Amino acid sequence: MNVLTRSPASPSREASEETRDTLGVTAPSAASRRFARPHLDVLESEAIHIIREVAAEFERPVLLFSGGKDSAVMLHLARKAFWPATIPFPVLHVDTGHNFPEVLEFRDRTVQQLGLRLIVASVEEYIASGKLRERPDGTRNPLQTVPLLDAIAAHRFDAVLGGGRRDEEKARAKERIFSLRDEFGQWDPRRQRPELWNLYNGRHRPGEHVRVFPLSNWTELDVWEYIDRERIELPSIYFAHERDVFVRNGMLLAVGLWGGPRDGEVVERKKVRYRTVGDGSCTGAVESTASTVAEVIAEIAASRITERGATRADDRLSEAAMEDRKREGYF
Amino acid sequence: MSSIDTAAVNTLDRDVDLLRFATAGSVDDGKSTLVGRLLHDSKSVLADTLEAVRRASRDRGSEELELALLTDGLRAEREQGITIDVAYRYFTTPRRKFILADTPGHVQYTRNMVTGASTAQLVVLLVDARKGVVEQTRRHLAVAALLGVRHLVLAVNKMDLVDFDEQVFTRIAEDFARAAEALGIRDHTVIPVSALRGDNVVDASANMPWYQGPTLLEHLETVEVEGDPAEQPMRFPVQYVIRAPEYRGYAGQLASGLLRVGDEVVVAPTGLRTRIAGIDTFDGPLTEAAAPKSITIRLTDELDVGRGDLLVPVHAQPRVVRELDATVCQLAETPLRAGQRVLIKHTTRTVKAIVDEITHRLDVTTLQLQRPCEELALNDIGGVRLRVAAPLAVDDYATDRLTGSFLLIDEQDGATLAGGLVGDPLAAARS
Questions:
Q1: Does any CB of chain B come closer than 8 Å to the CB of residue A85?
Q2: A196–B47: do the CB atoms touch at under 8 Å?
Q3: What class is the B229-313 domain?
Q4: Which residues make Cβ contacts (< 8 Å) with residue B69, sequence separation at least 6?
Q5: Is A12 at the interface with chain B, CB within 8 A?
Q6: ipTM for this prediction
Q7: Is the CB of A131 inside 8 Å of chain B's CB atoms?
Q8: pTM
Q9: Homologous superfamily, domain A36-220
């Protein structure tokens, strides 16, 4: 009973020896000295605590999993939180239909390896059936809200775990870790519950649900350092590769089946990588030669442009674009 | 704005520790500007964010970069030029990683400051050099002391408007030291700054050669933080039972202290005794773990242990109570009254409770207790006697922040009504 075997799919075996965390000390003299607390250990323990609170207090949680790096970290933390048991909830992908094939392949393989149930809410199907209309600019990120809310209602999810971070955007800086949404999925920043100590209040009325953000206190650099430390696998598009791209609104967009290039937009082959993974029509690449996690970290640490600013057209719509989308029930 | 071109910090090759701090100030003390300056001068603001702020500053008819716009995130805040809610900021220097809870000074200041200070190890208070320590400063000080913050910094802002006068500064510093000492806070530091011009925020001021102390950022980077939860008696709230074939483990995050394999422990509130058979993590078994680590433990005996139970050492046990005296801060707009039925959420346990009595209201300016007291309104801090439907294992807030704190929750709509602290953390300061 004391012999615990790990799943062969675990990617973090080799990493754990060299980066032995210091909260789990082995020296007997530990009580007498001050505890060094590397920030990643503190952030990891906090996130695991939050994920376990969700499993303990909600009846039907779900974890948003797009195959992007933040959701890959979320899944890794969820594995750690419940090990040696399996993750006790399904994962949900709100699929815009504008996907990078590498990301979908990664999503499906990961879900299969961990034996999870994947639910897909498809923006494409909503457009095909006339429930949603394509926007003039071709961007589908804002269209994700309706399929997301419908999926939450159809499956009666009461907690939705997401990888959102407060450092991403200034409206998110005011978001709670447990964020109550009404039955229309709306976020009201002036009526948020105060959140004190590590006590999270997840009580809600029928029809309401709670969005939960265990990575709230992480920064982009923390996420990458954690990916490095834990050897978390990511889709290949996060690393430098050759790709046909064109420039629109100052962003490098991939040539693909969706919206581009238009007349006058010149296609070039460049060495690029992605800092975020979202809807292909509005997620831009950055020119990069970083082909390993360590090289990506070095690039991010030196970068003077925020993650969303570099690569998300949808946040440029207005000064309060994110606040407006969040109010309507976006992630 | 040369910061765009300067090299950023790479923390890859070192383990930096983490400091959680909060800021508070009165209206117009320039707190948003100070926080903006701290982020800007520590090179934590990235190029596109800075460009957006510059654009917004110009839209508002300002030639200078309005640093406050870096922190005012919501539309209403920018439109009204105020800060509504606690905002969290993140920055890293080669020495430390910082999580800053930026709390507004005017609207519902107590509610916001209590929230921000509840997780803070240090609080930075701000005053206007022309006004000095005012009533609001004393209230902020009292809230910080109440919430168990052991390290205080007073930034005396707008020194440029008093001609960088040393005597003005010294007078304020003495006032502040007296007020902090009276509340039992031993570590307090006063720094003369000009947030608008950047004096002594990150870079040392050329205008105040008489000041030999650290800049604000230097102080934040080097202050030795007391009250390490790992040095307190062990407290392990059971959060979740993990079941797998041939496996039953109790998952949770150590609230305080150290846990070792072989330790004899008491399961509170039932009082059963057992031993730690193993400490498991995904990365392998441990012989010992320290707060605040999330772990899963196994016990040598098969006991009825579940969520809400608290594992503690035999020789340092918490009180097991059905009635408790506590200090609460009312966070909801509807007042708290005697006779009210509520839920109390304490560690991982939620039980029904009745407010038997409201014993007093605390005047945070004078620290006097006002009696009798009928109700506690929004932002009031006061004493209550609670009766709970099932026993709770509690510590005084003054000795353990996590096993001494709780929330009062509305049973009907689930709203968070009040933040609670077991005991009377300011009793010593009053006597």
A1: yes
A2: no
A3: mainly beta
A4: B36, B53, B56, B57, B78
A5: yes
A6: 0.92
A7: no
A8: 0.89
A9: HUPs (3.40.50.620)
